[in-house]
């Protein structure tokens, strides 16, 4: 019954169109969906019906009697060749490169099934999807050619002014209208704004190279910026497409007509189509604590040799990635400590960016990740406040990284006994400016600069039974080199603990005790 209704709707719509124009479009091999969208037939209509074909439209023109519903099957038959505008895209036909065969999925449900099977094969766990469609530029050129042809012929007629010049539906939108509801049913979720993307990339190497050579002749032989394109891929096409699009857009109508053959040649090969689905990066954020002086923040390898026993990045990510079933990860942290510096106190904010996650972790999954990391055998690293966070966390962390204050505890040795005046001197200094030249130890990888940094406050904690060793607690602006602030780096950091106390000072151990950043609390 539904089919009968579909047929009635298509029939009524088709017969409301000017017959001579409809006939004209059919005679130059424009497909049913392209005809409907050129006339701006509203979105609610027949795009998703598998019955909307050129053979049906043609038969409606010949015979205005509604065909009996049991004979509707015959209208799904294929005609040789593909649409001269969309090159088969809206006929749901495509060339399958992997299997080297032409797919004529005239039925919307078959086409949608192909996509839903891919999503299921890859085991995506989804709560929605959004469709992304990429089309070869030749389709825009074809459409422009047909529209100019129609304008020349029917430009003065009322319906042309009203319908053809009014907002029409693009090939992309028409394809979405055709397949979205079937996809929603098959996937069991709604389409909309989603981090899960289904991408359909259409290419037509043959037609596109023809367009390129047309473009080439427009450029009077200057081919310096037109790449030759044998392989048609998403990446390679965007740049040369932009060049061609600019040229096409700059053409006057009459110039365009001179360049393009009309009516267009018959198309016997549809576009090739690549299906791909992926999820936009998801982020898991929190704070980490590092209890080892032999674990680096990121995996650190020099000349094939690993520095330290492990890295924070690997310990955390190796527990996150399997649960999210992602392809890859990136580790971001708010600053870093040296390999021999522990990260204590509240911990350091970090984010793991997971690419193409098949699964978005639930709160139970997050707990499991925390459990695994915090109860590992070595206990080099622990995490706290672990959460699934939005992508804005990345920006907040980057901003916070530069602005925020850091707190440290340093074990310091000085060349003479510590006295009470020293304690006074140190604790009386508030928001003191210091100048730091790039430390000698990092000069090989950082450019030589002089930076101003602020030491917000300091406090000395005496160590019982020792007069030349003490713990220095200090709070500084992010980006301060603490080791250099203690020993002075041969005068490259000034003032330093050594210069303030008028003696030699060395740093033996350093711990980060707090990294202030509200968002990650
Ligand atoms: Zn078409």
UniProtKB/TrEMBL annotation:
Domain Pus10 N-terminal eukaryotes: 83-272
Entry keyword set: Isomerase, tRNA processing
Disordered: annotated span: 213-239
Biased composition (Basic and acidic residues): 222-232
Family: Belongs to the pseudouridine synthase Pus10 family.
EC number: 5.4.99.25
Organism annotation: Cinnamomum micranthum f. kanehirae
Gene3D superfamilies per record: 3.30.70.2510, 3.30.70.3190
Protein name in UniProt: tRNA pseudouridine(55) synthase
GO MF, one annotated term: tRNA pseudouridine(55) synthase activity
Gene Ontology biological process terms, A to Z: tRNA pseudouridine synthesis
Domain Pus10-like C-terminal: 283-515
InterPro entries reported for this sequence: PsdUridine_synth_cat_dom_sf, Pus10-like, Pus10-like_C, Pus10_N_euk
């Amino acid at each position: 019954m539904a089919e009968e209704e579909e047929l009635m709707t298509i029939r009524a719509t088709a017969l409301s169109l000017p017959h001579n124009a409809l006939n004209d479009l059919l005679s130059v091999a424009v497909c049913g969906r392209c005809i409907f969208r050129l006339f701006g037939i509203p979105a609610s209509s027949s795009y998703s019906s598998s019955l909307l074909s050129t053979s049906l439209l043609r038969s409606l023109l010949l015979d205005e009697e509604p065909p009996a519903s049991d004979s509707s099957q015959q209208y799904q038959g294929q005609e040789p060749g593909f649409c001269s505008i969309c090159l088969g895209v809206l006929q749901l036909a495509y060339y399958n490169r992997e299997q080297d065969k032409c797919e004529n999925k005239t039925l919307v449900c078959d086409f949608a099934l192909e996509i839903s099977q891919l999503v299921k094969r890859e085991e995506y766990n989804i709560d929605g999807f959004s469709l992304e469609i990429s089309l070869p530029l030749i389709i825009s050129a074809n459409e422009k050619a047909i529209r100019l042809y129609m304008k020349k012929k029917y430009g003065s007629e009322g319906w042309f002014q009203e319908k053809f010049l009014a907002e029409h539906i693009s090939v992309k939108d028409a394809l979405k209208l055709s397949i979205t509801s079937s996809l929603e049913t098959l996937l069991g979720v709604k389409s909309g704004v989603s981090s899960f993307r289904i991408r359909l990339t259409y290419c037509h190497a043959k037609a596109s190279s023809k367009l390129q050579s047309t473009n080439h002749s427009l450029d009077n032989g200057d081919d310096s910026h037109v790449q030759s394109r044998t392989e048609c891929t998403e990446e390679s096409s965007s740049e040369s497409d932009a060049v061609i699009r600019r040229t096409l857009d700059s053409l006057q109508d009459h110039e365009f007509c001179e360049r393009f053959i009309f009516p267009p040649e018959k198309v016997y090969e549809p576009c090739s189509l690549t299906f791909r689905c992926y999820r936009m990066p998801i982020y898991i954020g929190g704070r980490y604590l590092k209890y080892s002086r032999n674990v680096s923040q990121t995996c650190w390898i020099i000349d094939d040799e690993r520095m330290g026993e492990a890295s924070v990045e690997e310990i955390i990510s190796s527990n996150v990635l399997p649960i999210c079933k992602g392809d890859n990860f990136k580790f971001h942290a708010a600053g870093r400590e040296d390999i021999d510096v522990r990260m204590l106190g509240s911990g350091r904010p970090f984010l793991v960016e997971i690419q193409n996650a098949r699964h978005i972790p639930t709160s139970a999954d997050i707990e499991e990740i925390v459990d695994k990391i915090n109860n590992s055998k070595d206990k080099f690293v622990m995490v706290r406040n672990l959460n699934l966070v939005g992508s804005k966390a990345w920006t907040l962390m980057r901003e916070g990284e530069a602005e925020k204050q850091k707190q440290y505890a340093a074990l310091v040795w000085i060349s003479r006994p510590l006295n009470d005046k020293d304690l006074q001197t140190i604790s009386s200094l508030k928001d003191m400016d210091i100048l730091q030249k790039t430390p000698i130890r990092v000069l090989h990888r950082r450019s030589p600069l002089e930076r101003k940094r602020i030491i917000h406050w300091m406090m000395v904690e005496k160590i019982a039974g020792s007069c030349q060793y003490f713990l220095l607690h200090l709070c500084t602006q992010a980006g301060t080199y603490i080791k250099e602030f203690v020993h002075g780096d041969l005068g490259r950091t000034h003032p330093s603990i050594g210069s303030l106390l008028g003696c030699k000072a060395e740093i033996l151990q350093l711990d980060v005790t707090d990294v202030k950043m509200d968002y990650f609390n």
